[in-house]
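4.2 Preliminary Data

To establish feasibility before requesting continued support, the project team ran the inverse folding procedure on a target of 204 residues. The structure was first converted into the token representation described in Section 3, and no sequence information of any kind was made available to the design step. The complete token record follows.
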């Protein structure tokens, strides 16, 4: 990351707020804004957070689920644990069978909500990055098919581009309500979009 990126980040309102309020990342505000609007996570929920490092979304999810809920965070990068019993971090690739088995063990049943802010490692070439993002989302959908309870919610990030409308169509066949949105805290120039899916119909 260059000096310009660093200076822009320093000026950034959400980055500064995250530092002040002790959230681990400015991304926390995206989940806060999306959850306030769409009511995805409830007290006592079991949440699986895919692509979770450094843990900003997990932090918000822990606040939302409270002591009776559970948050399982997965990332290739290490996630510093939170000092609570109802948080588990798995270091690994969520497309990996072994990692998914571990998710299953920790869940001990199904998840109420699956959230994914996973981003592919960026090549800087728009089409390639968009394709990689779509591929990741396909894998998130596989995890949801395996672990999301009937009636559960899914929130997933994707880079907009070719294949986006087909993806929405696919999700609409599996969920009662599907909406793509961009929270105010998402940078204007970024191609990222968030797809909010409520009411999983279950695997056909
Ligand atoms: C934008 S960051 C997530 C930020 C996080 N939501 C937060 O609030 O702190 C995207 C993450 O996705 C992770 N990621 C991408 N592909 C992954 C995969 N297949 N398995 C696990 N993590 C993955 C990356 O390592 C990266 O840490």
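Position-by-position output of the design step:
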């Amino acid at each position: 990351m260059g000096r310009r990126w660093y200076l822009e980040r320093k000026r950034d309102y959400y980055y500064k707020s995250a530092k002040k309020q002790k959230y681990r990342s400015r991304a926390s505000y995206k989940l806060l804004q999306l959850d306030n609007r769409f009511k995805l996570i409830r007290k006592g929920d079991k949440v699986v957070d895919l692509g979770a490092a450094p843990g900003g979304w997990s932090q918000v999810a822990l606040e939302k689920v409270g002591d009776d809920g559970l948050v399982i965070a997965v990332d290739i990068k290490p996630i510093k644990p939170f000092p609570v019993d109802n948080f588990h971090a798995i270091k690994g690739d969520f497309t990996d069978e072994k990692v998914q088995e571990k998710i299953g063990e920790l869940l001990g049943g199904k998840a109420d909500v699956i959230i994914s802010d996973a981003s592919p490692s960026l090549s800087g070439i728009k089409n390639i990055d968009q394709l990689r993002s779509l591929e990741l989302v396909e894998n998130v959908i596989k995890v949801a098919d395996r672990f999301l309870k009937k009636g559960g919610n899914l929130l997933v990030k994707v880079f907009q581009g070719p294949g986006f409308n087909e993806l929405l169509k696919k999700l609409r066949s599996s969920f009662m309500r599907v909406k793509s949105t961009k929270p105010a805290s998402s940078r204007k120039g970024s191609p990222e979009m968030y797809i909010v899916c409520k009411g999983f119909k279950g695997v056909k």
